[in-house]
Design goal:
The protein has 3 helices and 6 strands, in the order βββαββααβ. The N terminus is likely disordered. With 138 residues, the protein is α+β, with helices and mostly antiparallel strands. The longest helix has 19 residues. It has a domain of 89 residues: Alpha-Beta Plaits (2-Layer Sandwich).
Length: 138
């Protein structure tokens, strides 16, 4: 399932090819820019919580200048990774986000879940890996 997110809010996909309002393609890819992809592996018992975190997100990222939009891609095969794909006007805008109070606000609940798991001596409920890309062409 695809969840489209932009400054207008969450747009749950009614079908597999939904594009959020205002987009001319996936993540407004008609605009040049910078794309960050966060690959997230969730423990099976954490999947519902993960989905809830995005469904009730703070929308803090929407306040960052240069943010164009975001999609959260849910795997069709159980146990595979979720992808959080965000589109930015440039790398500096993305870097501004990752060093901001809004970043901390947007991730506060997940960071708390990670901290509590560590205190209990458990594996983290999710693990993530970031990769970044420049948009070559559309």
């Amino acid at each position: 399932m695809i969840y489209g997110m932009s400054s207008s809010g969450v747009t749950p996909a009614p079908g597999p090819t939904h594009i959020a309002p205002g987009c001319c393609g996936l993540l407004q890819l008609c605009q040049p820019g910078f794309v960050a992809i966060n690959t997230i592996h969730c423990q099976p018992q954490y999947v519902d919580r993960f989905r809830d975190l995005f469904g009730s997100r703070a929308h803090a990222i929407d306040r960052i200048p240069g943010f164009l939009g975001m999609y959260v891609l849910e795997p069709k095969t159980e146990g595979e990774a979720y992808l959080v794909v965000s589109h930015w006007v440039n790398e500096a805008a993305f870097d501004s986000w990752t060093g901001s109070e809004e970043f901390l606000e947007g991730h506060r609940r997940a960071f708390e879940d990670m901290r509590l798991a560590k205190e209990r001596g458990e594996e983290p409920p999710m693990k993530s890996e970031f990769r970044t890309y420049s948009l070559l062409t559309t």
